[in-house]
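Title: Request for sanity check on Exocyst subunit Exo70 family protein prediction

Description:
We are preparing a figure and want to confirm that the structure record we downloaded matches what your pipeline produces today. Could someone re-run it with the sequence below and paste the raw structure tokens into this thread? We only need the token string, no images.
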Amino acid sequence: MEKHSAKSGSFIGRHRWLANLEGHRASFSPRIHQKSPVVPESEEDDDDDIIESMPDVDHDQILADIDVFIDELANVDDKGSSPELPDVIETFAIIIKSKTKKSLARNAGHDMVDEDMFLHESIKRLRKLKNALADFNDDGSSIDMINKLMQQAMVFIEEELRALLLDNSKAHLEPKLKAHPEPKLKAMSSKHFSFKQQERCPVPEPSTDDDYPGFSDEKISRLNIIVTTMISSGYKNECSNVYSMARGNALYEQLKRLDFEKLNAEDVQKLNWDWLESDVCKWIRIIKHCSHFLIPTEQTLGETIFSEDRAIFRSLFKNLVRSLITSLLDYAGAIAMTKRSAERLFKFLDMYEALHGLSESMCISDDSDSGETKEEQWSNDLSTEISSVTERIGEGAVTIFGDLENSIRNDVAKTPVPGGAVHPLTRYVLNYVKYACEYGDTLEQIFQQNAKLNQIPSPEEIDMEKSPLAAQIMSVMSVLDGNLSVKSTLYKDPSLRYIFLMNNGRYILQKVKSSNEIKKLMGDNWCRRRSSEVRQYHKSYQRETWARLLQCITQEGIQINGKVNKQVLKERFKNFNAMFDEIHKTQSSWVVSDEQLLSELRASVSAIVIPAYRSFVGRYKHHFEGGKSMDKYIKYQAEDIEAFIETLFEGNPAASMSRKRF
């Protein structure tokens, strides 16, 4: 290729173009909130007249000529003096200026036209031309001219970027999220305990007509071209500011749709839990919406738009997410500082899971080209802040669970539960534990991370090598057993005491067996020991009640010198009748609510009483036959006794005792 000569366009032409550019160039500001000046279409100048007088200008040819000139500059050996610019540069500058003014005068967000593409291609040439001229010993006038021209073109580019981003955001201001019913509350309480079992807060799902972020493929392509052009031209800060402001506003509008503005960390300490609970659920939905939808969607959008500059986008995205979740983390931190109570455990666990999901969502993309791990893509301070709040929520959950044992110990009752029924405390604790075990994986993780806050397991639990959660649950069960044992002493009747222990023991066992989560934690050995304890209570009850009754119809002492002592026999029947009447009267009002236990209990009583009574009556009945006193002493048939046994433990006062006659 021939070396470029010093010949160029006329000095007068270049001077006229520079003067015209200086007089009409638009001021450029990197501040994203400042509007760039728009030149009215009615404004005319000499350059417009010139471009109008050149109807046959071939834009592609001009760009090609510029490329040739740039190549020629690269082949110039003597770079000691500044080269003269050819006439095509003057024409090129006039076209850029005119098209920039026309583009700015159009409505924001207009459809892409050839003129806009020409401007983007022109900026590339200006950048190359500037780099080529920088190698020459120039007085700076040529480069200054190119800088001014590029700055004017960037006014349009920046405004176009802002218009495309903001125009799309306006389409997503109306709420379109699927409505979710408020979680149902189920109250479980005892005299000293109460909490509301609440369904987990659902993840808000966008409705089918919500296409957030709503950018068409064409718009994304345009945004990609604009972003790539601005960054490659040295306008990274301006591009970043416009993008961050626009997308930050779009994300904030999304949060407003979930009542984000109603959450105020400063109000947390002023409100009671009944008021806070609904706000906490709202917070959980917002965090889950960010984790499952907003953050992944926003990341995918940005990585597509900044496909040529992923590192720049990662920095922008960190700041976007930080601005999105900082106030949410402040709210969670305020909740972690509230007074701890049993009913708050499950909201704390929901919050912990939501924060854990948030951490995972921020590492969904692994850019292998960046040389960074997923965690390294996020600034340490943001990760530390999320981890800190998560740990505080976890510590709160551990403390609440630990306080459950203290609450059980402190539940001192002075009045026994009527009829030896299952104590409300037992129902509360087992329902509480069952619901807590639905968060088994979360609680395991929390207890492992906060082992120092847990109570030290007993030697038995250590030998069993249980998980931290299993050891904690077993400790709760042990404390509950101790409390129930103390409560059983409120019953003066030993038989009723064993009915109480049997009822509560059976309830605990059935609750554990009915929950796969609890049963897995407690283990088969624990279930077998519990079954053995319930059977022992059963035997103790039989011994205290029915073994004493059977002493009335024993054979011992009835015969004297081989003959039946009728007076002793009469006393035996009288004592049996009186004791059985008292048992029936008393124990009919006792309660055994477990149907299987009730059936087993009645069957076992009948199995030991009926055969013995039938045998005794059959052996000695003839001593009363023919006399008027038979009904007085042999008051019940065996069938009567069996029928009365079937009315025990129903929690009702004894009904009239009708009987069959001989």
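Thanks, this matches our download. The CA atoms of residues 444 and 469 lie 5 Å apart.
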